[in-house]
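fwd from M.: "can u put these together and see what the complex looks like"

so here's what she sent:
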Amino acid sequence: MAQKAVELILMRQLASYLAVPIFLVDPDGNLLYYNEPAERLLGRRYDETGEMPVAEWSTVFTPTAEDGTPVPPEELPLSIALRKWHPAHRPLAIRGLDGVDRRIAVTAFPLEGQGRRRLGAVAIFWERPS
Amino acid sequence: MKLTLWGTRGSLASAGPETVRYGGNTSCVEVRAADGSVLVLDAGTGMRRLGAALRGEGRRVDILLTHLHMDHIQGLGFFAPFFEPDREIHVWGPPSTTQALRERLTRYLSPPLFPVRIRELPCRLSLHDVPFEGFEIGPFRLNGALVCHPGPTVGYRVTADGVTLAYLCDHEPALGLGRVPVAPDWVSGFALAAGADVLIHDAQYSAAEYVDHVGWGHSALTHTLAFATLAGVRCLVTFHHDPGHDDETLTRLLDEARAGAAFPFEIVPGTEGLSMELGDSATLGARLADSRPAY
């Protein structure tokens, strides 16, 4: 595998210490890492899923809007952050890989490194009361 | 390829009777290719003596800065070739999103910190941001990448004459790794060092000292040995010695490390004045055995 940029390494290390659920993707949207608090929301340990192509993760959690309509991958906050290169936020409902439905809010922002390199994006998940 | 270590100390120049064996000058390494081309890795206080050695040689010099902490640039103002009108000098440093390299270096090379301004240097000076896509300087093929250290800091991989050198003088790859699985692609600096014939690497602290310096951007010797093992290098040169470590302490730490485990590479203590004629990688081991301090 290709060497990760140090900004991504540091982001992962920071995420691994935080209690906030965090999801990290590369510039193409492929999943690079999610931390332990995110494992609880997504219903599976990162060690089991590992890195995951965007086409897989963007559908596997079956994201839906508040009214239950499916949210296409390109309208997910992470996709918007990568495509438009600005922060994005929206409430969602997901079904975790453990089969549990959860109401969450997602805030995503792009990661731009030294030399204006586009390194990927980060999403922070917030669980909303049912 | 020939390496000469003109400064191996970290953080602060530390001259004194207690540092005569490993040296007190801060980071500066001369890399000379078989055709005589010269790269200088970092511009710590060791650079003054290198400048004296290069005086009058007339050849182009490329200075590659890892970062702009004072112990890596303080020698710039005392580098004799800067004051030679016909000398072509290129300085390469980490890019910034806010200021050009010239502006950042001017903070030091201008009054009140220094009496001579960059624009007053008589040499033919060019400053460059290090490109991250790889680049060439004469016979040298170079890769630079940002590595784990406070502020933008570049590690270098230099290949010439069939030999590869990795230079990660200020580097804390262990930061946070206690909570992260060690897959090589997630280890800072791995690609720069992988399979290198010689790795010059930060070894500032003992394991006990590191506990109080997590996040300062430097490695314990144990981390350095683990990193060199992971990278599969042939020779490790320990570097950036803590200014508080006298010769006796450095020798003891290295002896303890060597006694604790067998390593699949040679360990060479970074010693000021040490000159290593590397030749091609096939004969590296024998040539390292013949290495002697240059003065």
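replying to her w this: Chain A has a mean pLDDT of 92.
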